[in-house]
Write a structure and sequence with these properties.
Number of helices: 12
Bound molecules: S-adenosylmethionine
Strand content: 25-35%
Radius of gyration: 22 Å
Helix content: 25-40%
Order of helices and strands: EEHHHEEEHEEEEHHEHHEHEHHEEEEEEH
Distance between the termini: 26 Å
Length: 374
């Protein structure tokens, strides 16, 4: 298997280099309207934003910033295939403008636009981002009627364009089965509150990543596994440090990233080229978590009924029998500045790791073995 990863330095309010109905999934996080760090960017995009901010008119500034994002959302409707998904990470903003403090509800404004564009809105995920900062409570302290609830979550909005995706022939059906996730992953990933505390990013440039409001790699990795298949193409119109592209590499999907600020260029390329060990660790972590799950399940409940045909370990349902995981063998830059990634299938696990009464180990994937410490 082989995937390619393209970076376009451009303004995503026009995605003219991307064809209609050519994208299988969008995973992205825009600049957040009414969060100060993005004022300059929005003011550069629209004089209405600039005027409204200078006149301390928060409501007009909010609306004008969203009118710029609306142009990107409209392009997403054009480039997405019917039946595919868009996942938008967004936080609301709280801010005092003039002497008025209020909530600017970015998530509801975006849901409204997507509905008007023709997308179906699906249940959202709350990404819990608890903080222990001593100054997190705003307003009048212990005195009543002037203190404000602290925002400690962001949203992952999920939309579908049109009818459900169809898997008509046997090849499509098999690709879908091979791209499936484990039963216990379904139970965790499809819950409506996510908390990435404790996950290790372990990527370089963590400083720059936090200054550029990058989301955790686990967030994009999860969404890509949930809403796309191997060899699909994932688009991020606000690429930033390239977290979506890195996750697509780990998931065996192609990607296109669009970013207005080409200062990110060397960082993205550098990260993509050095990413295979981290990506293989994500895959091996899935395997070890599954092996742990099977062990606990077998010990506390019953032996599992089904066996996965490609890896040999037990699984809970028939739908998991064809899951095929891949490890990365090579990452290279092509002549036209794309990143090309090659993979090998992870083989059967045999006789070393204990699962109930049996033992398993990875037997044929050298690149995975180094990442797998069961
Ligand atoms: C919230 S950050 C995205 C962070 C990204 N998810 C990551 O993990 O690094 C938003 C990004 O969108 C970029 N951006 C803002 N407006 C844009 C536009 N019109 N076209 C393309 N990129 C844009 C910004 O430069 C910034 O890097």
């Amino acid at each position: 298997m082989k995937t390619t990863h393209k970076i376009i330095f451009a303004d995503s309010r026009s995605l003219s280099s991307i064809q209609n109905e050519s994208i299988d999934l969008v995973v992205t996080s825009p600049p957040y309207p009414m969060i100060q760090m993005w004022d300059e960017l929005f003011s550069g995009m629209s004089d209405d934003v600039k005027d409204a901010l200078s006149k301390n008119d928060g409501n007009i500034a909010f609306e004008s910033m969203h009118r710029e994002l609306d142009k990107v959302w409209s392009e997403l409707y054009r480039v997405l295939r019917t039946g595919s998904f868009a996942c938008i990470n967004i936080g609301d903003a709280t801010r005092t403008i003039g002497d008025r403090f209020q909530l600017y509800s970015n998530h509801s404004r975006i849901i409204n636009t997507f509905r008007l564009l023709g997308f179906d809105t699906l249940p959202v995920v709350l990404w819990r981002k608890q903080t222990n900062a001593p100054n997190k409570f705003m307003g009048s302290g212990m005195l009543p009627s002037g203190a404000y609830v602290t925002l400690e979550h962001e949203y992952i909005l999920i939309f579908r364009k049109g009818n459900k995706r169809e898997f008509k022939n046997e090849t499509d059906k098999l690709a879908r089965m091979q791209s499936s996730f484990f039963w216990e992953e379904r139970n965790k990933w499809f819950s409506d509150i996510w908390d990435f505390k404790g996950t290790q990013q372990g990527l370089n440039h963590s400083d720059l990543r936090s200054r550029s409001a990058a989301y955790p790699i686990e967030l994009a990795y999860r969404l890509i596994n949930m809403y796309s298949l191997y060899n699909d193409t994932v688009l991020d119109p606000f690429m930033g440090t390239g977290t979506t592209a890195l996750s697509a590499i780990a998931c065996g999907r192609n990607s296109i990233g669009v970013e207005i600020d080409n200062n990110f260029s060397s960082l993205i390329f550098e990260q993509e080229k050095a990413f295979s060990a981290y990506a293989n660790k994500l895959v091996s972590d899935r395997i070890s978590s599954h092996v742990d799950f099977v062990k606990t399940y077998t010990e506390t409940k019953n032996p599992l009924k089904y066996t996965n045909n490609n890896h040999g370990f037990p699984v809970v349902t028939k739908q998991e029998q064809e899951i095929q995981l891949y490890s990365i063998t090579q990452v290279a830059e092509t002549q036209n500045s794309e990143i090309e990634v090659k993979y090998e299938p992870v083989g059967k696990l045999e006789n070393e790791v204990e699962i109930g009464k049996e033992q398993y180990r990875i037997n044929n994937s050298s690149s995975l073995q180094m990442a797998l410490t069961l």
